[in-house]
Amino acid sequence: MNTRKCMSATWTAFSGLACVLALAAPARALDLEVEVTGLTQTEGRVMVGVFTDAGTWLKKAVTGGSVEAGLQKEGRVLIKLQDLPEGSLALSVFHDVNGNGKLDSNAMGMPKEPYGFSNNAAGMFGPPKFEKAQFEAKAGARVTVQLN
Q1: What are the beta bridge partners of residue 81?
Q2: How is domain 29-146 classified at the CATH fold level?
Q3: Which residue among 5, 108, 110, 120 is least packed, with the fewest CB closer than 10 Å?
Q4: What's the burial of 39, exposed, middle or buried (CB within 10 Å: 0-12/13-18/19+)?
Q5: Where do the domains of the chain lie?
């Protein structure tokens, strides 16, 4: 596409948007494997959430994935995530033993189901901060998370 034409003031707003999109760098995405270890039960699903910044950490995942816990071998399952954004990511993983789609907790807020974070990060009196769990994602890499 001719850059000079894109800059022309006579183009409509729609054409201008098309030029911006055409000139923008292509979005890059990567695939990642998450190996979850420490499974002791075969019921339910193992779920992973992917986070890209501290502001949404443990509140709103950009994407995620899951696998049946019954597919485990020797306490391990593999979850393949696709089309993840490049850059810093952090993972939250839990074993949804009862299949209700959430991490159950007791009256004090302590998790009743197994959970873990990327970098095997741990927090004091609560979940770890995003910065402890974040890592630089690389295409085709495998990240291991140990469930507690």
Answers
A1: 32
A2: Immunoglobulin-like (2.60.40)
A3: 108
A4: buried
A5: 29-146
Q: Which residues pair with 47 in a beta bridge?
A: 66, 94
Q: Residue 35: helix, strand or coil by DSSP? A: strand
Residue 67 burial (C-beta neighbours within 10 Å; 0-12, 13-18, 19+): middle
pLDDT digits (tens, 9 = 90+) for 42-94: 999 999 999 999 999 999 999 999 999 999 999 999 999 999 998 999 999 99
Separation between Cα atoms, residue 97 and residue 42, nearest integer Å:
8
Whether residue 84 contacts residue 90, with contact meaning beta carbons closer than 8 Å, is answered with no
Reported as a single tens digit per residue, the pLDDT across 25-39 is 345 689 999 999 999
Could you give the 3-state DSSP secondary structure of residue 12? coil
Please, where are the H alpha helices in the chain? 3-7, 13-23, 130-133
- pLDDT category at 3 given cuts 50, 70, 90 is very low
Global pTM value: 0.81
- Residues 53 and 133: their CA atoms lie apart, in Å, by 11
Report residue 77 CA to chain centroid gap.
16
